[in-house]
Write a structure and sequence with these properties.
- The protein is α+β, with helices and mostly antiparallel strands.
- The chain has three helices and seven strands, in the order H-E-E-E-H-E-E-E-E-H.
- The strands form two sheets. Strands 4, 5, 6 and 7 form a four-stranded antiparallel β-sheet that branches.
- Strand 2 and strand 3 form a beta hairpin.
- The longest helix is centred in the last third of the chain and has 19 residues.
Length: 115
């Protein structure tokens, strides 16, 4: 994933969470406003920030085996039109990274659908 793709994904995820972006500090680090206060989030790199995003977007996270391959799967709630976003990441050496990326991709799809 390029830096621009990651920045776009993070911008869409922040939009889905209702967090206005104050400033992009690095490809995977942004300063956002949460409840009127600035907060630096590292959505692709920090488990706590990823969990905040998961809660803000009400994303469910599961760890099923898909075709005998362990995966992290993130699901959004159903919207008024009966649609739900779903993202999955294969669990390689780092299960936490797979979970963070699944949540980030799912939130990014929610934000993109809001446009």
């Amino acid at each position: 994933m390029t830096d621009l793709e990651l920045q776009t994904l993070i911008a869409n995820a922040c939009k889905a969470a209702g967090w206005p972006i104050k400033k992009t500090l690095h490809a995977s680090v942004v300063s956002v406003w949460i409840n009127g206060s600035p907060y630096v989030v590292k959505l692709a790199d920090d488990d706590g920030d990823s969990r905040m995003l998961q809660v803000a977007c009400r994303i469910d996270l599961e760890f099923p085996d898909v075709n005998r391959v362990p995966c992290a799967v993130a699901y959004s709630p159903w919207d008024a039109k009966g649609n739900s976003q779903c993202a999955n990441e294969t669990i390689g050496a780092d299960a936490r990274l797979a979970a963070r990326m699944a949540v980030l991709r799912c939130a990014g799809m929610i934000g993109e659908a809001m446009e």
